[in-house]
Amino acid sequence: MSGEETPSPEGFRFKPTEFERLNAAPGPAEHPPETEPAADVHAILRQNAEHDQRAGWYHVPVTRDRKARRRLTEYVVALLVVDLPLAWIAWSCGPTDPLPFAVALAGMGLFTGRLTWETWFLRTD
Q1: pLDDT tens, 9-47?
Q2: How far apart are CA 16 and CA 43, in angstroms?
Q3: In a domain, 2, yes or no
């Protein structure tokens, strides 16, 4: 390295590049001549809605939802079968014995909460 000099950083440059233009540059913007009047969006939407109403697209038949009706019936029956005996236990021994009272109320709350969650919010069917 004694005989070699370090070149100055000014000597390193990128070589100039030329880009090939494949497409001609766009000319001045010209507006196409308007042959039709501007479209009224609200009128078009109104026309489409009238056509759909005449075609019957907005007619929704009322059907009986048997699945929901069965789910409601099973929910009410399960609540009555489980909660009524627990309510009777809580009512009959409430002031005299606090343990069955507390257990019955806790069972009613737990069962009602879980049944409500599984019936209406946890959709597995």
Answers
A1: 676 777 767 776 666 666 666 666 666 667 788 999 999
A2: 58
A3: no
* Number of separate domains in the chain: 1
pTM for the model: 0.48
Q: Cβ of 90: how many Cβ atoms within 10 Å?
A: 18
Contact between 47 and 80 (Cβ < 8 Å) = no
From CA 115, how far away is CA 12, in angstroms rounded? 79
CA 68/CA 77 separation, integer angstroms: 14
Residue 55, in any domain of the structure? no
Q: Is residue 125 part of a domain?
A: yes
List phi, psi (to 5°) of 25: -65, 140
Contact 119, 75 (CB under 8 A): yes
Q: Does the residue 29 lie in any domain?
A: no
Domain that holds residue 125: 83-125
